[in-house]
Amino acid sequence: MQQPEPRWWQTGVVYEIYPRSFADSNDDGTGDLAGITGRLDYLEWLGVDAIWIAPFYPSPMADFGYDVEDYTDVDPLFGSIGDFDHLVAEAHQRGIRVVVDYVPNHTSDRHPWFIESRSSRTSPKRDWYTWRDPGPNGELPNNWISMFAGPAWEWDEATAQYYLHMFLKEQPDLNWRNPQVRAAMFDVARFWLDRGVDGFRIDVAPMVMKDPELRDNPPNPSPPSGHHMGSWTRQLHENDHAHPDMHELYRSFRRLLESYPGDRVSIGELYHPDYAVWAGYYGERQDEIHVPFNFHLTYSPWTADAVRGAVEGVQAALPPGAWASWVLGNHDQPRFASASRAGRDQARVGMLALLTLRGTPTIYYGDEIGMVDVPVATADARDPLEHREPGRGRDPERSPMQWDSSPNAGFCPPDVEPWLPLAADAPSVNVAGQAEDPDSLLTLTRRLIQVRREHPVLHRGDFEPFGPTPDGSYAFRRRSPAGRLVVALNLSDTPVTIPSEGAGQVLIGTHRDRDGSLVDGPLQLRANEAVVVEER
Ligand code: NOJ
Q1: DSSP class of residue 459?
Q2: Contacts with 141 (C-beta within 8 Å, 6 or more apart), sequence order
Q3: What share of the chain is helix, strand, coil (3-state, %, to 5)?
Q4: pLDDT beneath 70, residues of the chain
Q5: For residue range 78-125, what is the model confidence (pLDDT) as tens digits?
Q6: Which atom of ligand 1 is nearest to 167's Cα?
Q7: Whose CA is nearest to atom 3 of ligand 1?
Q8: pLDDT value at position 204?
Q9: If 0-12 CB within 10 Å is exposed, 13-18 middle and 19+ buried, where does residue 370 land?
């Protein structure tokens, strides 16, 4: 049977921009929309197909924009709606699509909807949020905990009820079981679709609807120690996460997107440790979320066994014909090149894997030059999560983009203090330097994107397991009528030999010194080396 033509969100490469940290155009130390527009030529040169911009809506910034006060405007810190329209027009002119964040689970406590809701028990918007009486002895309505530590309930003195917040108390949860909430939030989506956005990244997509009876979560009998989710892991999130009622919601959200011309996309922030639950968000007929982000590589240790497990686990769980997605990092996770994740020596191996796996890759800004976490002491932390649960703060992975070797790395003028400290390595690790260096990670990333575009087997081919490889290494195959490739990754710092079934030619390698060379017989990989071999 003829395969349908793939869509842009399957073949394309997505690039995540954290707008506070990308480029500051008005010299206030915080990135903004005009700053992004000013760097579109760079993104075009890099070759990405779409940018996803984290929230830029008016916000008190308790969670740096994930607490939205007005869903249909731009915070003055980031510019104006005119700046947004200009950004979209300029991006589209360069063939770059624009995906914006959609934050459905919660608003800011300063959103007019919440202000009205909390004004009295009889407010017409009371039921737009989840309000509950205390128990007979003043107890919390249930045992749910905030993902940001502490109880998920906040007491409202004036109306003597608790409201639900799965994140900060400044982020009250909307009640999506109320049809008016759904209608209002679908109007929000229409507002941005009408302005020409190419889709949405849906924040905490599996939390939006909860158990209607708000039943307690059972405790987790074996909570992992030192887990990045901290106290959240103390419970099994049976009743506040991945409720089945969300499938209907995402089907109807997709219908909304597909009622617009131009292939608009939904990308869901969709972590679930159970592959089957995660894959369920494609929908039984693949009619739910177009691209359920898959964080299995982000959350696995960067070891050959874990990578094999994640890649093959995801491939096996995908519904027939479904298209995976891959992410190595984002604004909530330690940077991939940091020692606490994969480390600098593996940055190239990770980038090569990300851009050759079967599925839509998303690159986190700065990962293409190997940016690493920039430590921020708890006392100085900007991220409230660090103050609530030290060690979980996300400032380190949000440091300003390193554009050049000037004092503030070209992010903001030298005499302005950036909102977060710059990396000490910025004078040597930056776009300007790496763009000119044929051996840099940036040059490799750009070339990998080109190779991916040039080779249908990479951007649309099937995935095939390769079979056993020596400890510390992993290999997989890509196949299409256009050809067959082996991708071989050495995740260790000692050489390995990958068994081979025949002859081939190296299409691209992390070290770049064997591109084009012929291989016949076993494939020798140096420490921290990965190659793509076109089989003959
Ligand atoms: C996930 C976002 O990526 C994160 O930055 C935010 O704090 C939470 N959702 C709450 O919106």
Answers
A1: H
A2: 132, 133, 134, 135, 153, 162, 164, 214
A3: 30, 15, 55
A4: 1-3
A5: 999 999 999 999 999 999 999 999 999 999 999 999 999 999 999 999
A6: 10
A7: 332
A8: 97
A9: buried
Q: Are 44 and 394 in contact (CB under 8 A)?
A: no
Q: Are 331 and 364 in contact (CB under 8 A)?
A: yes
Distance 204 CA to ligand 1 centre (A): 7
pLDDT of residue 224: 86
- Respond yes or no: is residue 203 known to be catalytic: yes
157 flagged as catalytic? no
Domains of the chain and CATH, by start: 8-101+200-205+268-449 (3.20.20.80), 462-535 (2.60.40.1180)
CA–CA separation, 10 vs 289, rounded Å? 13
pLDDT for 271 equals 86
- C-alpha 391 to ligand 1 mean position (Å): 16
In the DSSP assignment, the letter for residue 463 is E
CA distances from 486 to 327, 362, 431 (A): 21, 22, 30
Q: Which of 69, 170, 269, 395 is catalytic?
A: 269
| H helix and E strand count, the chain | 15, 19
Buried b (16+ CB within 10 A) or exposed e, 420-445: bbbbebbeebbbbbbbeeeebbbbbb
For residue 2, the model assigns a pLDDT of 54
| 191 dihedral zone (left: phi>0; alpha: psi -120 to 50; beta) | alpha
Give the per-residue pLDDT at 31.
98
Q: What is the pLDDT of residue 502?
A: 82
Q: What are 205-239's pLDDT values in tens digits?
A: 999 999 999 999 999 999 988 788 888 999 999 99
Which pLDDT belongs to residue 3? Answer: 65
Ligand 1 nearest atom to the CA of residue 148, by list position: 7
